[in-house]
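Q: For a teaching session next week I want to show students how multiple molecules come together into a single three-dimensional assembly. I've collected the sequence lines for a complex. Could you give me the predicted structure tokens for the whole thing so I can convert them for display?
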Amino acid sequence: MSNDTEPEEPVGKLEVWCAGKEWCPVTTTSSLICKKWHPVIIHRLLEHGPSGFNELKENVDGISSKVLSDSLEDLGEKQLVDREIISEKPFRVQYSLTPHGESLEEIIYAMQEWGLEHLTEPSEKSSSLV
Amino acid sequence: MSNDTEPEEPVGKLEVWCAGKEWCPVTTTSSLICKKWHPVIIHRLLEHGPSGFNELKENVDGISSKVLSDSLEDLGEKQLVDREIISEKPFRVQYSLTPHGESLEEIIYAMQEWGLEHLTEPSEKSSSLV
DNA sequence: CTGAATCCTAAAGGATACTG
DNA sequence: CAGTATCCTTTAGGATTCAG
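A: Of course. Below is the structure for the complete assembly, covering every listed component.
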């Protein structure tokens, strides 16, 4: 146990299998979060904090219930997102980032900044890149 | 001045369509680079510089020719990677990052650092997360 | 050797409708 | 409110084969 200037990371590292012969942090990180909606979902949870399903669906503008549900399940399995039932009577659920999920903020904000810097909305007439 | 080998962001922003009603930099950035192998390919091009096809295939350990070829084509369409034919006789091609591609390094290295910090290779006995 | 083209299967993702 | 359940289309990706 060396220095501990950083906030406590109580859980251990996530064990993630790698495609190639030698384990690679880029390959494996990519395998965790490089799905179409994952970065956006994580971003919205970072921005708005713990959210209910429909609240999240609102914020992740453009996603369908099915895909949001699937994505959250996947993120749950990967231990990046937690799901908590906060009420049974009016059934309510809350999604939040785990410590590992929170720690993705550097990546997510790097993506956001890059997008702001390098991308733009297509103008009316030009139908460009996907 | 004004010669070909000028980096320095001469090009404008890339026009990228967004799924939701309001354009979002995270959503759109995600749509560009969040494919299984894209971050790794970009990472290897950052690390090793312009590379030939098989050199790249070596470095992107675990990828098949077909998938590498498809991925490079996709990255080419998105103007993140350039393809240059450097020899016809022994047919040789060189792939390199465009200025926009290079500028992804913050994101890619953020992913690398995160992976090193939060992920680990599965131990022998435990078959864990994908 | 170089890389590209085929074939095929497995996922991912979207539209819609419907439950407790 | 918080999802499932279907259905369906598209895409990703792996194995293999082909061509220069």
